[in-house]
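A reminder from the course coordinator: this example appears on the midterm review sheet, so study it carefully.

Given structure:
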């Protein structure tokens, strides 16, 4: 992995096409932002509507549909940037860097996900096979990233607004995230917001235990928290290039603190249809969307801070993937919350703890810098 990511931040280069006067002066390009929000919401909510009309989260194809939804923000941003926004760093007539081949691969991968999701809707029995096959696309995408960055150099991605950032930030902020969820898990246990998970239920049904419980937990930790984020990196890039890569780069012209907060609210609202279906906060159709939006605002500040520090959107993609995997491990394999909405993790107590962390990182002078 050391060949994929530099230990030094990728330095962005100037746009290959003339920038409109309003944008050059640091103003938000609201028509473009509106087009992006409309397209990213439209694509994602269409996926949600199809899922809702076909049994919702009970449908075996729900996992594929939710992964497809995660691809939509970047798909919308790249579609607009490559074909319509002439001042974009990825515009097809001006971006001649190696990054363009990854963009085309991403378009292909999104199309394949659409086909697979539709197939799983009609033939639910194919879901497991299709999920395994799609994992190959993520692995190939990682290999392609490595080859393209090696052949084109770090500037080939940095110049397209897709810098990898500092690998040191990946490690430090990733470690901080894992420790944070470990603390939340401990607090859930101490305050009786959760119960110790039954490790034996993690063994395959009907199979004799091949590992002692602690060894099993260590294996699950390795697979989910260490390896899992890299396998999910292309999927979370699907959200992060859209939210942190494109939208944040526009809205921070309002000021970094204000712009990042607005991104978090938009990101939270984008999740509402699946929250209404019972995702993350089952049985909480009213409180769930509010808590989810609060959580996405808090996470937006953390991910933005990592992007500002590392100067790379892929840092956010990695931390997003790690966030999902770490929460899954701690809140499922160790201590299971009694009430998700009223426990540490993504519930109300978690938001209070997150607010303290955000207030701490907002003290950094980097938030006063202009973009």
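Designed residues:
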């Amino acid at each position: 992995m050391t060949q994929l990511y530099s230990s030094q931040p990728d330095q962005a280069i100037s746009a290959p096409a003339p920038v409109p006067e309003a944008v050059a002066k640091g103003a938000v390009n609201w028509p473009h932002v509106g087009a992006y929000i409309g397209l990213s919401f439209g694509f994602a909510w269409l996926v949600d509507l199809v899922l809702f009309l076909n049994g919702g989260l009970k449908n075996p194809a729900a996992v594929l549909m939710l992964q497809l939804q995660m691809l939509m923000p970047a798909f919308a941003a790249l579609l607009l940037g490559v074909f319509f926004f002439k001042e974009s760093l990825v515009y097809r007539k001006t971006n001649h860097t190696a990054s363009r081949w990854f963009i085309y691969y991403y378009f292909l991968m999104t199309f394949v996900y659409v086909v697979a999701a539709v197939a799983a809707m009609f033939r639910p029995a194919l879901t497991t096979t299709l999920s395994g096959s799609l994992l190959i696309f993520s692995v190939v995408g990682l290999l392609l990233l490595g080859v393209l960055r090696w052949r084109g150099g770090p500037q080939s991605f940095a110049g397209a607004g897709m810098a990898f950032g500092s690998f040191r930030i990946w490690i430090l902020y990733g470690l901080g995230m894992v420790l944070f969820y470990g603390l939340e898990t401990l607090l859930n246990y101490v305050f009786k917001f959760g119960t110790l998970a039954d490790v034996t239920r993690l063994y395959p049904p009907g199979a004799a235990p091949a590992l002692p419980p602690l060894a099993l937990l260590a294996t699950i930790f390795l697979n989910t928290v260490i390896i899992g984020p890299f396998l999910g990196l292309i999927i979370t890039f699907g959200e992060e290039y859209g939210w942190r890569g494109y939208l944040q780069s526009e809205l921070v012209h309002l000021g970094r603190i204000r712009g990042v907060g607005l991104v978090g609210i938009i990101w939270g609202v984008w999740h509402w249809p699946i929250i209404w279906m019972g995702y993350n906060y089952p049985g909480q159709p009213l409180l769930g969307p509010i808590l989810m939006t609060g959580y996405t605002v808090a996470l937006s500040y953390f991910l933005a801070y990592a992007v500002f520090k590392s100067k790379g959107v892929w840092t956010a993609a990695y931390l997003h993937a790690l966030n999902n995997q770490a929460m899954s491990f701690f809140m499922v394999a160790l201590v299971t919350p009694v009430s998700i909405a009223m426990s540490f993790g993504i519930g109300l107590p978690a938001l209070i703890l997150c607010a303290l962390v955000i207030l701490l990182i907002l003290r950094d002078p980097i938030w006063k810098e202009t973009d």
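The two ends are 31 Å apart (CA to CA). The longest helix spans residues 127-152.
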